[in-house]
Amino acid sequence: MTVVRTLTVNGQKQRVAVEPWETLLDVLREKMNLTGSKKACNVGDCGACTVLVDGEPMNGCLLLAAQLEGRSITTVEGLAQQRHGTAELTPLQQAFVHEGAIQCGFCTPGMVLAATALLNRNPDPAPADIADALAGNLCRCTGYSGIRRAIQRCANYREDGTCAAKCAAAEGHEGTDGHEGGKARRRARESNEGTVFAAGDVGDEPRISDVKSEIHAAAPPRRFSTVGVSMPRVGAADKVTGRALYTADIKLPNMIHGKILGSRIAHGIIKRIDTSKAAKLEGVLAVITGADVPETPYGVSPARYDEHVLAKHKVRHAGDPVAAVAAIDERTAEAAIDLIEVEYEKLPALLDPFEAVAEGAPLIHDQYPRNINTHVEQNFGDVEKAFAESHYVREETFTGNHIYQCPLEPHAAIACWDHDGTLVLYTSTQVPHYVQYTVAHVFHMPLGKIRVIRPAVGGGFGGKAAACPLDLCAAILARKTGRPVKMVYSREEMFHYGRGRHKQHMRFKLGVDRDGRIRAFKSEIYLDGGAYSSFGVATAYYAGSMIPTLYNIPNYRYDGYRVMTNKPAAGAMRGHGVPQPRFAFECLLTMMADDLGIDPIEIRRRNSMRPDTRTVNDLDVGSCEFDATLEAVARKSGWYDKYGKLPPGRGIGIGAGGFVSGAGYCIYRGQVQLSHEKPREHFQKRSIFPHANAVVRITEDGMAAILMIGAAEIGQGSDTILVQCCAEALGIPPQRVRMYSGDSDISPLDLGAYSSRVTLMAGHAVSRAGWDVVEKMKPYAAAMLGCAAEEVFARDGRFYSRRDEGTKARSHEGISDEATKRQGDEGLVAVSHKDEGVVWEEVARRYFNDNGPLVGTGCYKPPEGLGGDFKGATVGTSPAYSFGSAVCEASVDLETGKVRIERFTDFHDCGTPINPLAVHGQVEGAIVMSAGETIMEDVQFDEQGRILNPNLHGYLMMSIKDAPEIFSGLVDSYEPRGPFGAKEIGEGSTLPVLGAVAHAIANATGVWIKDLPITPEKILRALREKSAAKRGAELVETCEVGAE
Amino acid sequence: MRVLTPHCLSEALDLLAGDATLTPVAGGTDLLVSWPHRPKDNLSLLDLSRLHAELAPMRMTDGHLELGALTTYWDVITYAPIAGEFPLLIDAARQVGAIQIQTRGTWAGNVANASPAADGVPVMIAYDAEVVLGSRRGRRTVPLCDYYTGYKQTRRAADELILAIRLPRQRRDVHWFHKVGARQAQAITKVGVAVVHGEAGWRVVANSVAPFVCRCRNMEAALESGLHPTGPEELRAIVVRDISPIDDLRSTADYRLNVLARLLYFAPFMPGPANA
Ligand SMILES: Cc1cc2nc3c(=O)[nH]c(=O)nc-3n(C[C@H](O)[C@H](O)[C@H](O)COP(=O)(O)OP(=O)(O)OC[C@H]3O[C@@H](n4cnc5c(N)ncnc54)[C@H](O)[C@@H]3O)c2cc1C
User: Domains in chain A and their CATH numbers?
Assistant: First the structure.
């Protein structure tokens, strides 16, 4: 029964025919093509679909369109034009762009609308008002810090954006420029005494929101024009206006919709599938089951490919894909899914690794005896002897939790086949190349026949780091029907699909000498792998390999068992394999420091990693300012005035961590080629092909540079960082570089956004491509300037002659990094502009006149020979390592056990930041995500293995009201192996957080909770047990006294 | 699947009288969530959105505050006269979901939905609210504290609509509400309690600790008789007779009972050592 309603949408009156079940969100997205409102949960939990109804914020997904007769609706598309009659951004939208409020952008439209409603009610909101107004809008990326800043500073953008321009300009000049120059580098290298830079330094005024500013002394002149500047993100304006297209927003002509049927049971044999009723339903175009998909198994680790597109005869977890349907619309596809009958023979569901390894347990996969997917055994030095010689040894067990990435954007894919047999796949992925590789493998077709398009991606955090059933099913259904097929996961399906963090069961033993110096460490970990291998082999290695990068551990033994269970497969999530062991290690180290009467920060300093060290497990640590981060957090947080001196219910805690800046090796062996056609090769300790590859093409008029690289922007900001690196190398402003990173036909291979690799690896590739262009231009510039080609350099859109500058090429002061070699050190002296030089574009035009296209290329291969020679030595290798320390201040309500994370102070050594604002954004987001992980996030299963909370009201991400105040600071650091001295921040920023939170809670309550998440229930129980034990002890004491 | 949109109350009541399977929909914030397969189910909806004139108004009469059935949380938050006399309505409203829910969800929907975790219900019961029900057959009034008969069971007949909720105006000197959720917003209550003292005596009403929101009459009687607890355990022993908490996804029975006792013990109105 269709009804007709008249709505005013963004000022325009419209009559629409709606079905009784249709929500406003669906009507906007599907019928009015207003895709700015996002569907992320569809049940009012996340606010991504917030619209204004007669000025009041409401969730589009909870509004029945039929109920809205006569109402006036404002969507994100209606904001900009409403104010100025043009598509000019509102002051609030400008503030979002400039203050770092936008990362993946999926929450942005809803946030902006909720904030607009707030500012309409209250133009000058206090922090508590902001929190109230935005509590219904979840953000997974920013930690809400940038969003709060944007709203509080909105006033600055009100007068026609003049203030915005001022802020941006100020950033350019007074930003964090202290990082530049050989002096800072030398100092960092020689003395470990890092200069402290803080989040507050990005603007010309102190931050008034949650980040306190720290103004440092006047900085030396900038070495770089674009690198090191907190420029706003490329694409932010598209995201803040709802223009950015995510996969689910895309419609192709003649497109149909697919849905997957997941298993109802956790473990069983498929006896019979009857699809006849589904196939007969009107509007259904194809139904497929395991019989219709290739026999070829796939997965992530080539040695353990163990998944099929649809279950062949066995299901291994609730939600395991069993069948798929394509139909004219999503609703029909859903209805058809319900009509498929599946008969199972149930097998016992194994829900924890100890049950699964038990003698006689059924095998989930025949090829993994005792359900052990992999056993890692690593032994360095003599652990037992070192324990015997230790002054103090303590052993503890810790348990992690089931954490999911929960990017706000659910996975989506659209597949279509061109007439020539090319598969075009739009997919929401962090790893377009691995998707291409996997699809090629499953369908036995050349990679060159597969074009992967990555539209805007609304967050990944590891959840989108492999090809997923949507990609493969969409391709099969599109082939079968000859039409483009779109498939989008619901929030619930996101949980059933899985690939969250491995839950780890950890037994740790640490031995130290009298001064707290580590002698030996032994770790035994059972990783709950879920039903498939996915990333798990690497995860099991990472859980061990990263521990010795932070502290000097002379004797180390690690036993890791990844065990299959009947749960969704666990995969790689931010910090891959490391956050839980790092949490456990940090807790244990702190416990022992307290036992020995050594300050917990002091014990870390006594053991901290030094620069240029080869760790016990053969990892090459280069730059390392870990000590400086410890010193900085202690000072900034007032640690020594607080630790041990706070009243009951208030606590302070320390945690540290670090990560790789890109994995040293590719996930698969050999060259880029269909895996079936590759000869079996022995592993070689070098990369066969470059991991990052870039092309820059200069437009014929010389005005724009088109940068092409397949590095996946997923909200982390890589497009911006790469534009900055490339612009720096080209010597033009970043506004003249246009980025094409989303189409494998256009952009050369980059391995993708995982292992925190993009800044370092892709950063090198794009700067080399830029320098390649400049090299080609130099003769033309030299001819125009009347000097030698070696004497010219490009900067800020002009070519100059070094001679004209009156400066000799400076000595490189012993530093032989690439930027210096390529560009010379001219930047050390501010360009005087005595001489005007020649305009860059004129040089480019002259090149084109003579040679045709002006194109440069660049690529990056990790250094050869990384890692030791033992089994698994490659996992954890990297060109460089990041380091960080965090102090958490928390209060615990001793009546209810409720924890409030009050404040975080974090300092990182991420190398020299390319974009400090982006770095702080990663830190702020990681702190909120990981603090939530520590105290509230957990996927729960019933005894049948079904997820009890597959939604965002049962699975609890922190809201803005839960998020702490954050101070994010950087220590001066320079990594010679990184582009312009940079390392990573994306994953390293999560690692210190869990331990810091756990310690702060222990410090506040007097009880250590060793299994995550640290819920109020666990805290109250532990407090009760402690007081019962104390009463018991007192009782014994009284009895003993009485007996005397 | 169909949606009926009556233009006046009597038309709505006629429709309901004619078809008792109709599901009323006000804000839809409960209905659309508990109804995940929206397109598939064959519901018949009775859309109340055009009954604003008859069901929306909020009124302060001599004897009562009357919340028409379409009154939203946001209406209450922004209606100044309420703050002085019924502050707990505002406290509770501000803790329902988040603003997008508050602008849309209705008090009557909260009552009708009959969730044991409903946050609007305990404060209304603490203020001795009555539910005004109407049907073709006439009107009647049911005290909210007697409205529920079991888990998701109410006294509303299938042909009745909630027309309004009425709260008597009285002199009251204690107003206290505490919601414990797993996060600071958008959280389903793990344990909650509203306490009011006035001419009518003590009211202690808890949510999420029983199959439906309930008065804790033993606790009320203890307060009435001038209880002076020496520790939370003493209150735990009393309140345990009023409630029947369970273990579920969100919390444990043990936690709920303990926390309820502790909240009451440390509450500002409670006589005894904690507030000495
Ligand atoms: C994200 C989210 C967060 C939430 N958080 C909270 C929270 O913190 N605390 C809380 O208590 N609730 C919460 N809710 C639940 C819900 O918002 C409230 O219960 C709200 O008051 C329901 O009102 P409504 O008008 O939207 O009801 P509807 O969904 O329209 O209706 C709910 C039920 O009541 C019936 N009904 C509605 N009006 C009438 C009437 N006049 N006569 C007879 N029957 C009627 C309907 O048939 C339906 O069965 C939340 C919901 C969401 C989606």
Answer: 3-157 (3.10.20.30), 254-346+408-459+464-497 (3.90.1170.50), 503-665+869-1013 (3.30.365.10), 690-860 (3.30.365.10)
